Structures
1.
Amino acid sequence: MSFLPFDQQKPFDFIAVGRLCIDLNANEIHRPMEETVTFTKYVGGSPANIAIGMARLGMKTGFIGRVADDQMGRFIVRYLKNNGIDTSHVITDKSGSVTGLAFTEIKSPTDCSILMYRDNVADLKLEPNDIDEDYIRRAKCLLISGTALAKSPSREAVFLALDYARRHGTVVVFDLDYRPYTWQSKEETAIYYNLAAEKCDVIIGTREEFDMMERFDGQRRDDEQTARKWFDYNAKIVVIKHGKDGSIAYTKTGETFVGTIFPANIVKTFGAGDSYAAGFIYGLMNDWPIPKAMEYGAAAASIVISSHSCSDAMPTLAQIEQFIEQHRNGSAARK
Ligand SMILES: Nc1ncnc2c1ncn2[C@@H]1O[C@H](COP(=O)(O)OP(=O)(O)O)[C@@H](O)[C@H]1O
Ligand SMILES: O=C(O)C[C@@H](O)[C@H](O)C(=O)COP(=O)(O)O
């Protein structure tokens, strides 16, 4: 059964809007940042990672965003192009902004953190004028990520993209992607996340991210109550991720699907959510049953957390299928 109206006539499968950054992942793992001296540079930023994941899975993918007018910005654009991603709407910001950097600290397979350098970053300079209505009209699916709502003018640009998507029947997926350090206040964060979520068809987030959105609601919701809230707006599917405890998906039509995980030789925990999103959205776009989409998301996540990078480790379809085959009895999504 089809949950979402992906318009097969549209030439682009997937367009992401928002953050294009750099990850600098510690080479000397299992030690604190203070003792780390070398890093490997990768393209990063949650929506960039998801777009790369979708392109690796064979989807015709584009990106709307701003990069700094520097070597890092050019590195990002080149990497996207090399991965077959359309960069016609990736704008070089000329205001003197810089590329956002995420230094990743890998203290142990379960104790990882990210040190972000995000002052005056190019990605948050995205303007409403950068949002091309026709480009969004030509996409089956638009991905927005919450961090792009943290500041103007990027915030207004995202809301405009949302309006264009709704006007033209482009399915909108919201990856909550909550990064506290990008925001000024808890109130502001919850307000803008909720305003955006009202307009989205699919909402994907961790329990903690949904808790942040519900902070001022005066009631504590369980996963099902959280999902139901969004079905009164535009959502058809809500996915709540629980790290190593898997994920749970709810549909507006009343189904619940529990997704378990695959084994992983964990190098670091970040990248799980982005790779899960790519595998899951790919499945939705192919009209698969939701448990199968969740299985591909979980497999992609295990592959990425078993690797050093997020973007560069995004698997192809063949890699996911081979991985699932190898771990056939290790995971299942059940109704
Ligand atoms: N330790 C783990 N082992 C195997 N799979 C994991 C592990 N942690 C996360 N995953 C997979 O990645 C998905 C998303 O992870 P989660 O940590 O909840 O998201 P995020 O990275 O956005 O915080 C999970 O639902 C699960 O499928
Ligand atoms: O999103 C960023 O700016 C950093 C990412 O590239 C990073 O590697 C990461 O945190 C991935 O996020 P996750 O998939 O939600 O763990």
Note: The chain has one domain: 12-19+46-96+123-334.
2.
Amino acid sequence: MVLAELGGSISRALQQMSNATVIDEKVLNDCLNDITRALLQSDVQFKLVRDMQTNIKHIVNLDDLAAGHNKRRIIQQAVFNELCKILDPGKPSFTPKKGKTSVVMFVGLQGSGKTTTCTKYAYYHQKKGWKPALVCADTFRAGAFDQLKQNATKAKIPFYGSYMESDPVKIAVEGVERFKEENCDLIIVDTSGRHKQETALFEEMRQVSEATKPDLVIFVMDSSIGQAAFDQAQAFKQSVAVGAVIVTKMDGHAKGGGALSAVAATKSPVIFIGTGEHMDEFEVFDVKPFVSRLLGMGDWSGFMDKIQEVVPMDQQPELLQKLSEGNFTLRIMYEQFQKILKMGPISQVFSMLPGFGAELMPKGQLDSSNPKLMNESRIMRIARGAGRQIREVMEMMEEYKRLAKIWSKMKGLKIPKKGEMSALSRNMNAQHMSKVLPPQMLKQIGGMGGLQNLMKQMGSAKDMMGMGGLFGGGGD
Ligand SMILES: Nc1nc2c(ncn2[C@@H]2O[C@H](COP(=O)(O)OP(=O)(O)OP(=O)(O)O)[C@@H](O)[C@H]2O)c(=O)[nH]1
């Protein structure tokens, strides 16, 4: 996941603390120092980090905590709350509505990823049934129109622009008019990238904004600038009515934590983050689920949304039957990975599961449930054929063995029929699951209580026959 390093460091600090037999002042201080170091490395402002440390110490008064209280959970919750506080601007952004025309204008520094992000934003909404369209009002950078045209064509999104016209205001107005007539509900206007000092380009941006009257202006910002994001966002906000921010290149930059917190400090809501160059490497940014994933605590609502997007409901009963018989083959793993891949980049999906890191699980193959059949020469052949390293194929086999072991213990797991899941059978399945899950993951979820809670949450996704149904989550 994005900021995997930061998340990993914080989780490790919390884990080390929970490994201690007694959590005293020293153990707590060590843990907070580790978290502080990780946040500073991510370029989060010193004052914010120091305040966070003070607040946690204030909340977690070890002497006051009655014996028997789960100190680790209290501390973890305090860390969670404080991180949310740092990242939450406390103000939601304007949200366009499907079926009702909205004009959204993108602004940002040169090379921040604006043009790429316009298409990602359009594609994201198109997948959800919107009718987006793209207007290229960037007449400054040669090749900007071609880039937008190429992206838009790939995603099958209508676009408007001109090679001849040099007035961005004229193009923007014509494009918006055209797409209003065509009943598009999300008209996206891409503008030229500019530097803070370029007053002429800032004036041009103001004029485009005045002429097209956007419902929302989105400021696109590259995460690599870290806490300097504060000044940049402020400069743009002074010229146009920035209503939301998208932070890009979160995949490659350790300073992403700093960028996100700095933007929050300007009271501008971050609505999406860019996590790669591809069209679907784009994630909704929501503070609580983001922090939850950062701490390895998962994001069930996001996971359920993803599942509902891709899993064909009619194919689920057959799969559940096979799994409940303990019959987990490489083919099943392959097919499930294929489905998961459709949900977006795999690391993104797995980071939504509590206890999972963002480690990539390689795509695998075939029908045998006997890993012994995979001898050395076969592994070499597969590696050659797939253009992969032998090490990667071997890692995949290890992963398969690990999953197969889990599923073999699943034998006898009750498969609920639609709507017949009772609290009792959910508890029974929770007990079954608690024996199957790796102890580390169970601990991360919050033990037996946490697992039962989780199943309840999953169960609230009614009519789900995906993972929710599998783990015992039909409606009561
Ligand atoms: N790794 C990564 N690269 C990105 C991301 N978003 C954009 N890029 C890359 O950043 C580079 C610049 O992106 P553009 O979309 O051309 O930037 P721009 O802001 O439109 O550029 P100007 O029109 O010059 O202002 C391209 O190589 C993109 O592929 C992201 O989230 N992650």
Note: The CA atoms of residues 79 and 151 lie 41 Å apart.
